[in-house]
């Protein structure tokens, strides 16, 4: 599948899925993000590669993601990030715990990766709370 101004879309293809929370609705999937390892809702309805969906679908997808976030983080312990960062033209949102810092995990882990593989493994275990 090809897209204007882009070779491919990782969210359209979804070749790798770490963990799936909910794929009961054919319009979206809720899974762990490959970049931040947090729950993410990805639009997979029609049209597939879009930022514009009907209001009812938008609201239902948000409620489905909130349900997963509530189970993972607890009541009022999360927020829904609707900013499209790495893939700006395919609708997807992240559920982030309060206090979450972008890329903190990757910055810390990359320091250990360069210097000591045992330390990297240890730090990966420390940060594994986001992979529940």
Description:
This protein is of the alpha+beta class and 132 residues long. The protein folds into two domains: 1-100, HIT family, subunit A (2-Layer Sandwich), CATH 3.30.428; 101-132, no CATH class. It has helices at 10-13, 55-73, 104-115, 117-126; strands at residues 20-22, 28-32, 39-43, 78-81, 92-97. The chain has a five-stranded antiparallel beta sheet with strand order 1-2-3-5-4, with helices on one face. It is globular, with a radius of gyration of 16 Å. Residues 1-6 and 112-116 have low confidence and may be disordered.
Strand residue percentage: 15-25%
**Helix amount:** 25-40%
- The helix/strand series, from N terminus to C terminus, equals HEEEHEEHH
Query: What structural class is derived from the secondary structure elements?
Result: alpha+beta
Please, how many domains? Answer: 2
Can you identify the CATH class of the largest domain? Alpha Beta
From the 3D structure, determine the CATH topology of the largest domain.
Answer: HIT family, subunit A
The count of β-strands is: 5
* Largest sheet, strands/sense/barrel: 5 strands, antiparallel
Low-confidence stretches: 1-6, 112-116
**Tally of helical runs:** 4
Mean pLDDT: 80
Q: What is the name of the CATH superfamily of the largest domain?
A: HIT-like
Question: What CATH architecture of the largest domain do you see?
Answer: 2-Layer Sandwich
The end-to-end distance, rounded to whole angstroms, is 33 Å
- Physical arrangement of strands within the biggest beta sheet: 1-2-3-5-4
- The whole-angstrom Rg is 16 Å
Overall body shape: globular
